[in-house]
Amino acid sequence: MGSSGRRGGRLSPAAIAGWAGLSVLLGGAMLAALGGLNQSLYGASAFVQRYLDAIARDDIVSAAATPGVRLDPADLAGAGLPEDVSTAMLRSGVLRSGPEDVRVLGDEPSGDQGARTVTVSYRLESSIVETTFEVKPIEPLYGVLNRWEFATSPLTVVQVTAAHSPMFTVGSLTLDTRANKTGDELLAFTQQAPYLAVAPAVYEFGYESTLLEAVPTPLATTPGTPAEVRVDALPTDEFVERVQAKVDEYLVDQCATQPVLKPAGCPFGVDVDDRVVTEPVWTIVESPAVTLVPGEAAFEMPPTPGVARVAFEAQSLFDGTFYNFEQDEGFMLALEARVRSDGSIAIQLK
After folding, report:
1. pTM (global) more than 0.85
2. CA–CA dist 15, 9 (Å, integer)
């Protein structure tokens, strides 16, 4: 009979050597597999790619949860930002587009603590961009699989200037730059506020309402680099038409209805040397055409010409004759207009 590899219930030296060799092979294969995983799926470049892919998928929750992305109070203070800086833009539905066609150009050691420098290129809409990320190792998964975090957060701070309206839109989101303000700050005609945002990405800022609209403005963000955008809200045709209606109403109903030579609180009047026999009758021949431009504290209509006509019967103090007096009087009208918080329009004559 052939040998079974056992002698007296014990493994023979050859069997032990076989099992030892197999163990070495299995151990080596396992180490090789772990090494491969740590180089690929759990490598530094894969870590960066997953972050960029989350942005491309508009999965901003996952992107923001990537280790090293969140900013702690010390980071915010170092950047000159308040602890309550808005995180409202850290959500889906805000981006216009994210990075596409990501390619790893380099993955090199950085320093002596296991850190890596990962350089990638990607397309942001029509632009090809190259960015370098510094990543460093953190506690391994299960003690053997590499894990990483960004050495410096790739978040950016977008300083939004909301000119002439505190509201603006970014993507599908509407935000109010007065959210964390109090007192006189709430009254400013032009507001500013910082917002944390993921990068790299392209955003589109604008605003549109019945009374105000801003031309959409795209903004491409770079990781770790502050960005600025201005949302310039201007009056819509509806805004101008409503102010025009108020001006016409004021001139016709408040001024032209006063049967006097100089209507009180009105921009026109007439001086007559003779005796006025009948009550003066005013009519508005030409109402000032409203135009609105941004001023320091409101939209302004510069001094704009109009024409009023007055008619009445008069008696000459020289010879006592009666005659019909009719005369056109030119005048100028200027005003300020702004949108109240309830959506109505406040007008102040100047």
Report:
1. no
2. 12
